Amino acid sequence: MASLFLPSPSSSSTSSSSSLFSRCSFNHRSFLLNESRPRINSVKCDLGEPLNGKPCIPILVDGAPPKFLASKRLESAFNRNNTRLKIFSGTANPSLSQEIAWYMGLDLGKIKIKRFADGEVYVQLQESVRGCDVYLVQPTCPPANENLMELLIMIDACRRASAKNITAVIPYFGYARADRKATEMTEYKHWVSGRHTQGRESIAAKLVANLITEAGADRVLACDLHSGQSIGYFDIPVDHVYCQPVILDYLASKTICSNDMVVVSPDVGGVARARAFAKKLSDAPLAIVDKRRYGHNLAEVMNLIGDVKGKVAVMVDDMIDTAGTIAKGAALLHEEGAREVYACSTHAVFSPPAVERLSSGLFQEVIITNTIPMMEKKNFPQLTVLSVANLLGETIWRVHDDCSVSSIFQ
């Protein structure tokens, strides 16, 4: 049975010369605390735990405002300023929303969401948001259409309630895979394989971006989009949050010799992601699984580019849907002599038969995050779920305080 891990690297794993992170430049303290931030912002986000430690409520120094805020007038102004940030949760992933609010030291906003008998969504805000910066946490995970419609109606409710700014926090952007039409080369490959061309496809990612914008959102905050080009589909600012540091922080607690590690991209399209991941792992070597895809959720592995013999292979991808690609890739890695295979992914869609494939013994461990809620029936012994609540909470603070978000990942 899987459990929610909120680990912090042990001193032994960070000090050992053979540790995976012995030469890694990643530092979770510098990740969280930016020296250039104004004093009032650092007070709000004063943290005593590493990035993926137990979510803690940010507290003021010594439990009271700083001396320059000691007067009652300034103290009341400080408290009023805090109430200008409100977080509301949809029904898609309420546990993640609660963790984010816990990290930020806030209470979730009161909202009523229900379904009519015919399935229509009803949303009512049960507290004032006039003049507030509102953050709506709602991934568009399965059922994607239900959760997307709920998000749109939540945005509309906030806009009609005179919210100052509305940010759609979408940990998992469900339609990001439908992000382009088939190219001439793709059509040629389909012709060679005997399939019909696919030139008359929709670009649903752009459509959904338009819907969110027209509903009234002023900004979008999304985690690990399937492709970076999806950001350009929005006509409003988009903050793209990379969840790799959360997984890296967890891997830092493991004593794997960097010389025994190889990072593997399950397909050619994920090479850039795997290369960035490998760079953080003491510049670990990179391998690529070359596959041929003949249809949606259907993949055939052909060969491996790189050497994995006798090494610990870490496969990195943005999402796991049916697990066909990553399972066939893991089987190939074992055939090529890999000692152990780890799977790391941000979004665990886990459509059938993903659980059966992932729990078949191919993987030493499957490491995911909680951008999508994990149902009890999808748990299996090799599964590890990491929380991105601290990362999202810190990002929300920085957006609210007009601070840099990209500096988190530098």
From TrEMBL:
Q: Which residues form the Ribose-phosphate pyrophosphokinase N-terminal domain?
A: 85-216
List keywords of the entry alphabetically: ATP-binding, Kinase, Magnesium, Metal-binding, Nucleotide biosynthesis, Nucleotide-binding, Transferase
Q: What is its EC number?
A: 2.7.6.1
Q: Does the keyword Nucleotide-binding apply?
A: yes
Q: What class of enzyme is it?
A: transferase
Q: Which SMART domains match?
A: Pribosyltran_N
Biological processes, Gene Ontology terms: 5-phosphoribose 1-diphosphate biosynthetic process; purine nucleotide biosynthetic process
Renumbered residue ranges of the record's region Disordered: 1-20
Q: Which InterPro entries match?
A: Pribosyltran_N, PRTase-like, PRTase_dom, Rib-P_diPkinase, Rib-P_diPkinase_bac
Q: Which Pfam families match?
A: Pribosyl_synth (PF14572), Pribosyltran_N (PF13793)
One function term, GO molecular function aspect: ATP binding
Its recorded reaction(s) are: D-ribose 5-phosphate + ATP = 5-phospho-alpha-D-ribose 1-diphosphate + AMP + H(+)
- Cellular component per GO, a single term: ribose phosphate diphosphokinase complex
Q: Where are the transmembrane segments?
A: none
Give the PANTHER family listed for this entry: RIBOSE-PHOSPHATE DIPHOSPHOKINASE FAMILY MEMBER, RIBOSE-PHOSPHATE PYROPHOSPHOKINASE 1, CHLOROPLASTIC
Identify its protein family: Belongs to the ribose-phosphate pyrophosphokinase family.
NCBIfam families referenced in this protein's UniProt entry, alphabetically: PRK01259.1, PRK02812.1, ribP_PPkin
Q: What HAMAP family does UniProt report for this protein, alphabetically?
A: RibP_PPkinase_B (MF_00583_B)
Name it: ribose-phosphate diphosphokinase
Q: What is the lineage of its organism?
A: Eukaryota, Viridiplantae, Streptophyta, Embryophyta, Tracheophyta
